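Regression check, zinc ion case 204:
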Amino acid sequence: MAETLPVGCACGAITGEARELSPRTALHFVCYCVDCRCFALHLGVGERVLDEGGGTDLFPMAPARLHLEGKAHLRAIQLSPKGPFRWYAACCRTPVGNGMASADLPFISVLRTFVRADDAAVEAALGPPRGLNGSGATGPTLPGTEAGTGPGLLLKTALRLAGMRVRGLHRPTPFFDVDGNPIAPPELLSREARNALRARARRS
Ligand SMILES: [Zn+2]
Ligand SMILES: [Zn+2]
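Current build output:
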């Protein structure tokens, strides 16, 4: 059965819904990689986002199924020139999701922090999270966390995304305009800023 989760930033300037989720097909992760942690630390919201192992709870979904009001508040950063666009709400620095640098890739990993529902509702829609990139953790991880991303899972994700693209679920996207340009140009962190952030993220 398809589920809908209410989403939005902490201050309420951005609201919306993540639609047509199903625990049978959803992907739901806690990612312990350093760069996900960098994102939360850069926004100054580590205590709201990160679990005791420094992990970020998120779920990849089709952008066309994420409906948002208040998009004028969306901004993005890039940790490196080829890195994902990491979207957040500029009004209250709530992280929103990690997406690709192109409108043609049907993929946004929405952060749990952007969901306005309790854990029971999140689990009903997405199933329990699986730990990934455990080698980057700074503390205890979920049971069964994989050290990396795992080739099987990468393949599964790639196939899922290809399927979404075939079904046209990459458009419309809240993050790009009709010409395929990001709705706000992402801020690329300097090499110095990135290195300082990664050093902090490895310690925290
Ligand atoms: Zn806000
Ligand atoms: Zn990550």
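Comparison notes: The longest strand covers residues 15-21. DSSP finds five helices and eleven strands in the chain. No diff flagged against the previous build.
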